[in-house]
Amino acid sequence: MNKLLPKPSKVIDFQRETFDNFTITLDAKMKHEPGQFVQVSLLGFGEAPISIASHSDKYIKLNIHEVGNVTNALAKLKKGDKVFIKGPYGKGYPMKKLKGNDIIIIGGGCGVAPLKGVIDYIGQNRSNYNNVMLFLGFRTPDDILFNKELKKWRKDYHVNVSVDKDPKKTCYDFNVGFITEMLEKTDLNNNNKVVFLCGPPIMINKVIEILKNKGFNDNQMFVSNERLMFCGIGMCCHCMIRGKLTCLDGPVFRYDEINKYEND
Q: Hey, what CATH topology would domain 7-89 get?
């Protein structure tokens, strides 16, 4: 598949996750790494970069938050409709290099979507990894993504889910409070472990601070950064992070690859 040419792809499933979030499954067949993204376009509306929220060479799932003209138009898709796809782009999580480790996955809000691709990959290659812990944070119970998948993840992994607040007092299965608070209370050491992070910058910064206090090193943490990626191929430079192009050098970075830029 030529990454520079848009290819038509048919919607084979549409799943509403929350009032402003949904997942579409496309019949696009492409090899990709967990954490990579595609450019999705809809004629008459434009193009948007979307992380791949699955791991398969027979289809791709895209989890989409409705925030603008393109994503609002995508929200009106139904089975059988077509979109155009370019990609995959970027650098994902280096799963093959991390065999034999415990995996800690920490995601906040829409940042859980690219991490779902990691979870799918681990499920398909379970013997290559040791213990798996998930820390997932959302604003409210109504904002929790992948409820169906969560039931399975709870059977297979050690899952921690937090909501920032519970205004309707309906949260029985999840912790109420910031995911960083739960992480801080959890007894963790850095022995034979790697951490995958994706979420709002303020959450990521706090998580990294907590993990460093627990003894984790920069080269044990992998961060998925979100920037405005117009072209996806390093031409427009809108996604540059102090010398690094998110669309080419990322969106997944080992933390020691970017912390020197963040601390300049």
A: Elongation Factor Tu (Ef-tu); domain 3 (2.40.30)
